[in-house]
Amino acid sequence: MEEYWENLSFVGKAKFVFSVVIGTMTIVFATLNWTEIQVHLIFWKPTIPLSLIILASVVGGYALSYVFAYRKFKSKDGEIDAMKAHSAKTKEFELQIESLQHQLELQRERSKNTEMELERIKNSSESQA
């Protein structure tokens, strides 16, 4: 648990503390309101303790927020995967460019050596003539 806490950002820690406080307050509120009330459902009117209705509402709200957050993060995961693939391609292209630049430098060096050799041969032939 300590490692989990240390890995959280400040906002994550604030959300965690806020959730614990709200959860505790909800449980206290629910136990203080244990009176039974009649709930009007569409075709049924059960008598249920108010605390169970409160807890069911909190759990239902949490479940809905989890579902929507999961969908949001699932789409973000897709974006992250696409960016990783794009980054890998970019890295591959950068390596190819570096390789081509190295080959170009070698070719320039050979060309320079060939020009120097031709110049030397030309000067040698002129001095013999």
Task: Itemize the secondary structure elements and their pairings.
Elements: H1 2-7, H2 10-32, E1 36-38, E2 47-49, H3 50-128
Antiparallel strand pairs: 1-2
Helix pairs in contact: 2-3
Q: Can you walk me through this structure?
A:
The structure is a single chain. α2 (10-32) packs antiparallel against α3 (50-128). The protein is rod-shaped and about 120 Å long. It starts with a helix and ends with a helix. With 129 residues, it is mainly alpha-helical. The longest helix is centred in the last third of the chain and has 79 residues, at 50-128. Helix content is 84%, strand content 5%. It has 3 helices and 2 strands, in the order ααββα. A two-stranded antiparallel ribbon has the order 1-2. It has one domain (33-128).
Primary descriptors:
129 residues, mainly alpha, two-stranded antiparallel sheet, 3 helices
In short:
The protein contains 3 helices and 2 strands. It is mainly alpha-helical and 129 residues long. Helix 2 runs antiparallel to helix 3.
Total beta strand runs: 2
Sketch the topology as an H/E string, one letter per element.
HHEEH
Q: Please summarize the sheet with the most strands.
A: 2 strands, antiparallel
Strand order of the largest sheet: 1-2
Strand content: under 5%
Structural class: mainly alpha
Give the overall shape, derived from the CA principal axes.
Answer: rod-shaped
Q: How many angstroms separate the termini?
A: 92 Å
SS summary, helix count: 3
Radius of gyration: 37 Å
Mean pLDDT across all amino acids: 85
Helix content percent band:
over 70%
